[in-house]
Amino acid sequence: MAATDKTEGQTMEQTLNTEASTNAAEEAVNMEMLPFQIIANVGTARSIYVEAVEEAERGNIEGARAMVIEGEQCFIEGHDAHLKLFSRELGPDDMKYLPLIIHAEDQLMSAETMKIICEKLIDMQEELQRLKA
After folding, report:
1. CA pair distance 42, 56, nearest whole angstrom
2. How is domain 32-132 classified at the CATH fold level?
């Protein structure tokens, strides 16, 4: 019985070690992938915001506002990835990702700024159209 317990204990220990290794590998992948998720989503949002301004310039204000809402959804996905990134504890091994994280945050802030400018430009286009009418 004691041999069985020891064997079961070793099996359990081996299982725990395997799970810990798997979790560490998954965290490393997440640490690398989260900045890319931020960059991809907020980059898409920023592009949609630019297209929204162009849509407003063509006179389609409602379409432009709908595009801003679409861009916001992409931005939120990027922001959610940002929250996941910073809700975990960063360790010394994560420092190699720091340039990528900084770039991702820069893109996030750039998209947020673009949204503010986009909304102002759409408002201005709407006012311009009203004055021309």
Report:
1. 21
2. Methane Monooxygenase Hydroxylase; Chain G, domain 1 (1.20.58)
CA angle (47, 42, 63) in 5-degree steps? 45
What separation in angstroms does the CA of 53 have from each of 66, 110, 127?
11, 16, 14
Distance CA 46, CA 14 (A): 48
CA angle 40, 45, 48 (to 5 degrees): 125
Q: Is the pTM value of this prediction over 0.85?
A: no
Tokens for 37, please give them: 């998720």
Nearest CA among 34, 10, 29, 22 for reference residue 83: 34
**What are the tens digits of pLDDT across the range 48-88?**
999 999 999 999 999 999 999 999 999 999 999 999 988 88
pLDDT exceeds 60 at position 17: no
Consecutive H or E run containing 129: helix 98-132
